[in-house]
Amino acid sequence: MGDNNGLVRRHDQYQFEVKLGYDLHRHLPREQYRVDTYFFIPENLDVNNATYSKNQYYRDLLLYLRFRTPDFTLSTLTDTGSDRSPLTGVVNRLTAARQTPTKENNQALDYEMRLLGCVFKNSLRSQTRAIAGLLQNPDGTPTLKDASQTEALLTEFHVHVKRVCHRFRALRPEFQDPRLTAGLADTFAFTDEYISLLIEERAHEILQLVQDRTEAPLVRSEGALTALIQEEGAYRRARGYPSLVDESHENETLVFRLSVLKKFMGSVLHLTVRKREGDRGLEQILLAMGAGFAMLFATAVAFYYQKVYGTLSMGFFVILVLSYMLKDRMKAISQARVQSWLSKNVYDQSTSIYDPLTGKKMGVCREAVGFVPEKRVDPVALQLRNRDHITEIENTWRAEKVIHYTKDITLYPNQFLKFHKRKTGITDIVRFNLRNFLLKMDEPVKPLYALKDGRSERIPGARVYHVNVILRFTSKRETRYERIRLVLNRDGIKRIEPVRAESAPGKMSFYPSPLRQE
After folding, report:
1. Long-range CB contact pairs, 211-217, < 8 A, 24+
2. Residue 51 carries which DSSP code?
3. Which of 205, 260, 514 is nearest to 377 (CA)?
4. CA–CA distance from 62 to each of 59, 106, 232 (Å)?
5. What is the C-alpha to C-alpha distance for residues 21 and 426, in angstroms, rounded to an integer?
6. 117 close to 194: Cβ distance less than 8 angstroms
């Protein structure tokens, strides 16, 4: 499994996000990963089998699968001798598309431009984080850990950002070639605008770290960053891009365009998925068998009592009615038993994963979810839950409800890595909406009382609820556990607290899942 540091974060007021990375190895025909998520939900939230169904869970869940963004430093991105660099790829693909304007060459050029947008975003983020790590402590207080290294990183940021802009924007006239499709010129303009917005955003982040600082290298950088921001704004205005900051308005256009451009660039890494529900064929066969058994019973009873009473007797009429009543109940009971068995033994849904470039199947993701009793929870997960004394008081008469969500992912690395030399892994992003957990919560503010100068005064107290989440990641190489605490109130997510993590050498020896719930 890849690096999953900072794997859980607050996406917005109601959603949290889990971001995982799966490594791919060219020599392996098959790789398997499993993610188990346990939600420990307080009883007073009234989230249980009767109030929260599988369908509601899957409506609250959003799953993204994409290639991991290839790693490039700013210096390697602008290295003209690097065949891996998407900036070099754009130059080479443009030459090929102009010389041989085939559909394949046009698609490859479009792909390289959008990949450049993704890679450049990643490179800028890494450089900005490295600079921030030298300019501030973990608590946010300013510092200067290494003046010479900080100056070198700031200079590298400025030099290579300019180099990317110069090399990419110099290609604009070539996109007017009539042999190229109009869509390629549009992709060039979108990528150009996106690159400019990325530069401006990261330059602002660094500027906020260095402004008002008195150290000589930071003073010099402050002026260079200010000039860079002004140049990019002027450039977008000159090109007619509407993504400009206007302090007197809400900047609706800027926010909208930035969101659309981000999705347009990121789509080049997204995998094609085709979802289907669990084994419905088996379900229909079992339901039909149940109905057939009920019909067999009713028919056998009818035949027997016809022989005993005859076809025109009152006794036969009564027995016939009773047998059909029993048949109806037997059918309903058998269908309920079948549905219950399927929910414990068959995955809820399966997602086939396809390579968008070649169209070949590269894996499958199977999911199941259900409420489980604590005795069916992984013992290590229970130990990590580690309830405190005040929680134990409540649980002596109200046990927590446990939702267990299982996701099995099987990948076929050697099926597609030969077509993707720069990609080494898959990123799995799960976003979960907690609105259904908030419905029965009390007011977020509770009035309290305190003495101030001998007078009793009202003060506000925050009412919160804790939902503990244990994540278990299993591969052939290791098993890792992460515990987080979601601190919620009726207005949504107040904060997310990482609590504890553990890891151990692992085998694919999975603990019972919702497929074996009782």
Report:
1. 213/142, 213/144, 215/144, 215/147, 217/147, 217/150, 217/151, 217/154
2. T
3. 514
4. 8, 32, 35
5. 6
6. yes
- Residue-level pLDDT at 279: 52
Q: Directed axis angle between helix 314-345 and helix 280-309, to 10°?
A: 160
* pTM, two decimal places: 0.75
- Which segment, 326-330, 343-347, 358-362, 408-412, is predicted with the most confidence on average? 408-412
> What are 201-207's contacts with CB under 8 Å, separation 24+?
202/124, 202/125, 202/127, 202/128, 202/157, 203/161, 203/228, 203/229, 203/232, 204/229, 205/128, 205/132, 206/128, 206/131, 206/132, 206/154, 206/157
How many CB atoms are closer than 10 A to CB 132? 14
Q: Where are the beta strands (DSSP E) in 249-346?
A: 272-277
pLDDT digits (tens, 9 = 90+) for 110-136: 999 999 999 999 999 999 999 999 998
Highest mean pLDDT among 226-235, 244-253, 312-321: 226-235
Nearest partner of 228 among 201, 188, 259, judged by Cα: 201
Helix axes 147-169, 182-210, angle to 10 degrees: 160
What's the pLDDT at 516? Answer: 40
Bridge partners of 460?
Answer: 447
Residues 216 and 204: their CA atoms lie apart, in Å, by 19
**Exposed / middle / buried, residue 146 (Cβ in 10 Å: 0-12, 13-18, 19+):** exposed
Please name the amino acid found at residue 136. Answer: Q
Say if residue 488's pLDDT is above 90: yes
Q: How many CA atoms lie within 13 A of 137 on its CB side?
A: 4
- 436 contacts 456 by C-beta, under 8 angstroms: no
Helices (H) and strands (E) in the chain, counts: 13, 14
For residue 51, the cross-strand partners are none
- Measured in whole angstroms, how far is the alpha carbon of residue 230 from the centre of its chain? 35
